[in-house]
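Go through this:
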Amino acid sequence: MKKIIISILLLPLTLAADLNWASSYEDGLAQAKSENKIAMIMFTTKTCKMCNYMKDVVYEDEKVMEYVENFFIPIEVDIEEHPQKYGYKVFGTPTYYFLTSDAKQIGRLFMGGAKPDGFVTKLKEVVSESK
C-alpha cells in the first residue's frame, strides 16, 4: 500500500518535464556542435510577459518539447545580465536566433511569441532551412 501511495504522489513529478536548457551561451554552442543540433538562442528578460508565456505555456507543450529536444539545444540569454548580447541585434524580447552546429545563422531572426502549434511550425521551417 505504501508503494502505491508513494507512486501516486511522485507521478506529477515524472509528468512535469522541462526543456533541457543549456547552462550558458558558450556551453549551449559547444553542446550544439557536439550533438550536431541547431542552437536555439532566446534573448529574454525576467519581466518580459511574452517570454514568460513561452516558458510557462509553449515550452511545456508536449509537441514543442519533443521537437526541441530532438533537433535543438535551447539557450536562454537574459539581456539584462548580458547586455553585450554576444554581438546579436536584439530589438525586443523574446528574440530568437537559430545557428547551425558550426555557429552559422539559419534564416532570419524571429521576434515575439507564438502558440504551441505555430512555434512548432516555425521550428520545422528552421530545420528545413538548415539542410
